[in-house]
DNA sequence: GATACGTGGCG
DNA sequence: TCGCCAAGTAT
């Protein structure tokens, strides 16, 4: 296989079928002189970490409408940013997003670094995001490797080594096909291919622009690659959440910065995250039943308790609540406790 | 290097 | 119903 043939076919496919996304500048607009805004590209890439385009789009629109520039975001209160991120998951990303925006304003004059190495030094920016922003915004021929690229390369070269062992080799292979011309469009093309054609299950090899170049397709094993080591079973944890209302206010606490749902608003809870505080105050708590939720590494059955009387709590504080500001686990508890306030 | 860290959709 | 999976990073 000629390496240049791979990027050439991908770029042709991308130009003909590029998907429209709010953070993207289409090839035609770039030809007319438009450049991607590093602030918007960075934000989209952080949101897209382990997250689908479908889930990200509405969040991206809200964030960029509310905070149009990195300086606007840097000036935002922590609680507002965490509330806006609620429901998107991996909340360390939101904390790092804010820390990064503030670092860009404080240490870089409000301008993102224009190299992958410079980006890499910012909070929440790892090898992938640094390379993606540098390639997309500045056409640095950085090697952009995400889960899509790993899958495409494993199939293109029929690499049988299972992940994560195969990772360094996949990065090496990705480097061999990364072009000097239009590396930003190329990076997006490979990721689009992985998201739409070279999918994890049932890849659409028949319409793939790399048909004829792909070793796994020729061998008939595309759908089996990349191979992966078996993952450990998820244990089931049990917990309790305490829901108390006082008039229009609800008893809430801000979770610790580190750890599960870090930095997010939550009902006082116990038993599932290593804590055992007990109820926030003595009352005849009524068990409303349980909500189920699955985290990355365990399943959770969370009993939801409701107080019919209120008292001065030992933890948390009463405050008005917009349920959209809660992480999804706590939103499930809210919906169980206040079914009449749940839309639909 | 291994582990922690969310969520929603799909087959 | 349930396991897998998604444009990863921090420690």
From TrEMBL:
SUPFAM superfamilies from the UniProt entry: DNA-glycosylase, Nudix
Broad EC category: hydrolase
Reactions this protein catalyses: Hydrolyzes free adenine bases from 7,8-dihydro-8-oxoguanine:adenine mismatched double-stranded DNA, leaving an apurinic site
Pfam families named among the record's database cross-references: EndIII_4Fe-2S, HHH, HhH-GPD, NUDIX_4
Record domain HhH-GPD: where: 47-196
Cofactor note: Binds 1 [4Fe-4S] cluster.
Keyword DNA damage: yes
A GO term for molecular function: purine-specific mismatch base pair DNA N-glycosylase activity
Alphabetized UniProt keyword annotations: 4Fe-4S, DNA damage, DNA repair, Glycosidase, Hydrolase, Iron, Iron-sulfur, Metal-binding
EC number: 3.2.2.31
CDD domains: ENDO3c (cd00056), NUDIX_DNA_Glycosylase_C-MutY (cd03431)
Cofactor(s) the protein requires to work: [4Fe-4S] cluster
Family stated for the protein in its record: Belongs to the Nth/MutY family.
Function: Adenine glycosylase active on G-A mispairs. MutY also corrects error-prone DNA synthesis past GO lesions which are due to the oxidatively damaged form of guanine: 7,8-dihydro-8-oxoguanine (8-oxo-dGTP).
Protein name as it appears in the record: Adenine DNA glycosylase
Taxonomic source organism: Cypionkella sinensis
